[in-house]
């Protein structure tokens, strides 16, 4: 492999690397739970993809209580 004949200065190196930066990921909203999710992937929060349940999501005890409260509020309305 060839070696550079001259050393690159810190400025040249930093200017070059400044152009190589990370882009923010594209996000869309999940139609089921309204959370932000990367497109063309299953939702990590509710486990749905294109309107179908594709993942089983294990809930903690706190999350189970919150979901039960939300369901009761929906039924009352």
Overview of this protein structure:
The protein is of the alpha+beta class. The protein has a domain at 26-76. The chain contains two helices and four strands, in the order H-E-E-E-E-H. It has helices spanning 10-19, 61-76; strands at residues 28-29, 36-37, 48-49, 52-53. Strands 1-2 form a two-stranded antiparallel sheet. A two-stranded antiparallel ribbon has the order 3-4. A hairpin with a 2-residue loop joins strand 3 and strand 4 (52-53). The longest helix is centred in the last third of the chain and has 16 residues, at 61-76.
What is the topological layout?
Blueprint: H1 10-19, E1 28-29, E2 36-37, E3 48-49, E4 52-53, H2 61-76
Antiparallel strand pairs: 1-2, 3-4
- Cross-sheet strand order for the largest sheet: 1-2
- Terminal CA distance reads 71 Å
Sequence of secondary-structure elements: HEEEEH
Report the oligomer.
single chain
Radius of gyration: 24 Å
Largest sheet data: 2 strands, antiparallel
Query: Averaging pLDDT over every residue, what do you get?
Result: 89
Q: What is the structural class?
A: alpha+beta
Tally of alpha and pi helices = 2
Percentage of residues in strands: 5-15%
Low-pLDDT runs: none
Helix percentage: 25-40%
Q: Give me the count of strands.
A: 4
Q: How would you describe the shape?
A: rod-shaped
């Amino acid at each position: 492999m060839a070696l550079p004949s001259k050393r690159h200065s810190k400025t040249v190196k930093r200017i070059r690397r400044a152009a190589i930066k990370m882009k923010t990921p594209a996000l869309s909203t999940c139609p089921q739970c309204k959370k932000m999710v990367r497109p063309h992937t299953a939702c990590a929060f509710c486990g749905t993809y294109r309107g179908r349940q594709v993942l089983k999501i294990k809930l903690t005890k706190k999350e189970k209580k919150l979901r039960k409260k939300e369901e009761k509020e929906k039924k009352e309305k």
